[in-house]
Amino acid sequence: MKVEMSEFLMQKRQVVKKLVHILSKDFKYVSVLGTDSHGKKYVVKRKGVNISDSFWNERGFIVRVFNGIGYSEYSFNKLDEGDINQVALNIKNRVNEQISKLRNKNNITKYQIVEDEKVNNSFVGEVDILPKNFSDKDIIDKLTTVKDKALSISDLLLDAQITFQQVQVSKIFISNNKDLYQSYIWSEGYITVLARKNNNTRFNYNVFSGLKGAELLDEMDDKINDTVNVVIKLLDAKPVEPGTYDVICSPDVSGLIAHEAFGHGVEMDMLVKNRAKAAEYMNKPVASKLVTMRDGANSAKQVSSYLFDDEGVLGTDTVVIENGILKRGLSDTLSALRLNIKPTGNGKRFSFERKAYARMTNTFFVGGHDKFDDMVASIKRGYLLMCPSSGMEDPKNWGIQCMVNYGIEIIDGKLTENFVSPVVLTGYVPDLLKSISMVSGDVGIEGSGACGKGYKEWVKVSSGGPYIKAKVRLG
Question: Please, which pLDDT band fits residue 262 given cuts at 50, 70 and 90?
Fold first, then answer.
């Protein structure tokens, strides 16, 4: 079923166009991004139910103008026909005030005018179940059924928390040459279980996501038993003995590595600021020849897929690493102007009140030709790493640290029942990526998380990849 475009934004399109026309008399470039995103989050656990507004709800506009030196922005959330002239005057006065202060300062970065190609386009997504056709009660009933099934599996479970969130994102982007709009729904779900035995408490989770509606809830049933069975095994898990091991990373763990290792490291606003080592390695080997990595709104169909980014640039499919060679980075419009390259459609804002940064979208390693069983058979002693929880990296020095909920020991080419938890994966990014010796053909991409940058500014992203075999340090 087709997603319905925001009535609020569609009603404001002509008003926004008039504002752009008025401002264009004083500024050589003018654009307006309008956003209307709304959704709900549902949580069911043993002792309660909670329904709340989504963290991602927002409604408002941001104007960007070329001020003769660089770009000024002005955000607001009210725009009516009778307000246009006053809003335009407020913007003009604010920009003139900024420019008068900048003219007396040294070392001010100067920008070229954005190449505003003529584009008229739109995207309206499709889901099986629209929010209006599935009530809060329907959703809570579904989540309660999943919770009850999980709790019935073992008396060792303290709790099972089942979470579902769906958000409809609608945006317009209007300049003198562009008239764009898009509307789509993304959803995410979590099964999180907590167990205790002999004062030892462990957790496990499974995640679900996609450009889907409430039909995503049906996917949870297949993962209930697996989620609970693993947490019971984790009650007997031992800490990993620190050292360097051959490991197989599951698709979600390889996705975390892709995100942390060469996602943040190639966001090109970091290159502009000389905060990323990747600038020294363009068109040079940074990984095994088996490694190809992509990012882009058009690279996959997941929560960070869209027609255009928050600067009106159409989404792309960017090859970041190709057969081990670092090819290019991910750019917002302003970093692209500074570096004299074409933007990749990665300019994303936390909200209409925040600036645009170069941000990841759908980031993943491309699949290879190896079979999972052959990968396991190739390891004398190592681990299958599963269930990532968090990660961080240093773009300047290429250090990486990934937290993984558990690993399963591999001995003499066979998976055992020996679990280790928690696991910390660390290393120097090129060493880790160059050690990749096998890559499966199976690729999984999920988008249940978010990525932070700047001052607590979050955006939805997805990541993933195939199973990969690598040599890493564990602790």
Answer: confident
